[in-house]
Amino acid sequence: MPTFPCGQEAHYAIGNKRAKGALRHRGEGWREPPMRSPRSVKIRLVCVGKFANLNLKALGEDYRKRLERMCDLEIVEVKDAADRDGLSRLAREAERIRAASEPFSECALWDEAGEAIGSREFSLLLGRMENRSARRFTMIIGSSHGVAEDLKALIPRKLQLSRFTFTHEWARVLALEQLYRAKCIQKNIPYHH
């Protein structure tokens, strides 16, 4: 019997009857799969700083609420450093990120020079984490000044949101949207077209 990437059995609907292995359609008798997977990996999003733009904050909150119905999500905001010197600022922020993110074995950094993957590949990455029974997958978004190079070297996977450069607030909203899109792809919810 087919299974969803999250490991749940697929029960397809045909007319008013449910049949195993039949083609899925959104007609009469169709039902959405359960939202939360029993083996769902906890997703932690570590962000430096808080939202200053209230519109982006509302948008990020909307995606957070949607995601919390689908997975175990934790958003950790670490305080940005106030040092005037760029290197000492990044070093202080790196300490705070390290404290919120370790261990780095199941960790990814959203970085402009990271690996460019699509939404489906990102969904598969989250599915592989669940299949490996990872307890937590941590994703890091640095401050407007980036992330210290020594911290970057410790993080095994770097992902790119886009080739464009965004503020860290926009990056946070885009990361939440991509997480939501990936979960919709996994659960066969018609959000990704």
CATH topology of the largest domain: Alpha/beta knot
Helical proportion, percent range: 25-40%
CATH superfamily membership of the largest domain: SPOUT methyltransferase, trefoil knot domain
Structural class: alpha/beta
Question: TL;DR?
Answer:
With 193 residues, the protein is α/β, with parallel strands linked by helices. It has helices spanning 54-68, 86-101, 119-131, 149-154, 168-186; strands spanning 12-14, 17-19, 42-48, 73-78, 107-116, 136-141, 157-160. It folds into 2 domains: 1-34, no CATH class; 42-186, Alpha/beta knot (3-Layer(aba) Sandwich).
Explain how this protein is built.
This protein is an alpha/beta fold and 193 residues long. It has 2 domains: 1-34, no CATH class; 42-186, Alpha/beta knot, CATH 3.40.1280. Helices cover 36% and strands 20% of the residues. It is built from 5 helices and 7 strands; from the N terminus they run E-E-E-H-E-H-E-H-E-H-E-H. The chain has helices spanning 54-68, 86-101, 119-131, 149-154, 168-186; strands at residues 12-14, 17-19, 42-48, 73-78, 107-116, 136-141, 157-160. The strands form 2 sheets. A 5-stranded parallel sheet has the order 4-3-6-5-7. The chain has a two-stranded antiparallel sheet with strand order 1-2. Helix 1 (54-68) packs parallel to helix 5 and helix 3 (119-131) crosses helix 5 (168-186). The radius of gyration is 19 Å and the shape is globular. The protein starts with 11 loop residues before the first strand and ends in a 7-residue tail after the last helix.
